[in-house]
Amino acid sequence: MTINSSLKALMILFALFISFDGFSKEIALTFDDAPRAAKGYFDGKTRAAKLIANLKAHQVEQVAFFVVTSRLDAEGVARVNAYNTAGHIIANHSDTHPDFNRLTLEQYSDNFLRADRQLRPFSNFSPLYRFPYLREGNTLEKRNGMRALLKDRGYRNGYITLNNYDWYIETLFQQSIKSGQPLDMERMRQFYVKTLMASIQYYDQMANTYLGRSPKHVLLLHEMDITALFIGDLVDELRRQGWKIISPEQAYTDDIALYQTERVLKYNPGRIGEIARDNDQKSNLWHKTLDEAYLKQAFDQQVLNKTSQE
């Protein structure tokens, strides 16, 4: 091989490396409902320790915990302090996790402000607000009122791009533990990773359809036992499939952070779903893995190894 041909080969390899690195998919991890009730497989202290250790062991430097402040009793404060001390972002998820569709703007605003006052003392507090149930107001007045309040208080919308029903998988897991049903933890691990990856791939493809690219994604998860158990396995699979784990602060620098739908949505599918709806996609804004009946059947078959006749 001549010097010129060797140089060309090296240049091609370098270009391929730059191309892969430049177009790698990026994802940030966020956890809602902290400190979530912990009366099942783990207690709260054990869950927090397991989750922190698992993130550290898999080189995930920073995630965000969206906190419901009415849960900040002594144990809850200790748990959120542990996440804060570990370097993770502490953000606002309301005081009582209300459904905006059921409250007035004044009631909802007061709920948000109560949480804000309690969260600002945390050293890693970041003014990000995630609407409970992702519901941002079912009237123009409510939607615009909260947009104005967030702006006035220096907040950003803690939107998500990758939606799932991991909370229902947790329900099925805890029900099985409580009932004493034999539960194969390896099957459980595989089901968790497979189901979440299916939803991630679905919404990433939707993003590519309407944006022509894969944005800096924000994954919705919840602070739960199955998350503490299997987050490392999910991270491993994400990286195996070419994803790069980034911080939430990095994710919220994407251009879609500035996107605001003009629609008033009673139920919100997340930022990618909003964009799809604004481009006239009227169905399939929620992936099939966001259907409780589908998940129950899949859980019974794939985790409990039940047949449809049982």
UniProtKB/TrEMBL annotation:
Membrane-spanning ranges: none
Gene3D superfamilies linked: Glycoside hydrolase/deacetylase (3.20.20.370)
Domain NodB homology: 25-246
Keywords on record: Hydrolase, Metal-binding
Protein name: Polysaccharide deacetylase
Organism: Thalassotalea insulae
Record Pfam families: Polysacc_deac_1
Organism domain of life: Bacteria
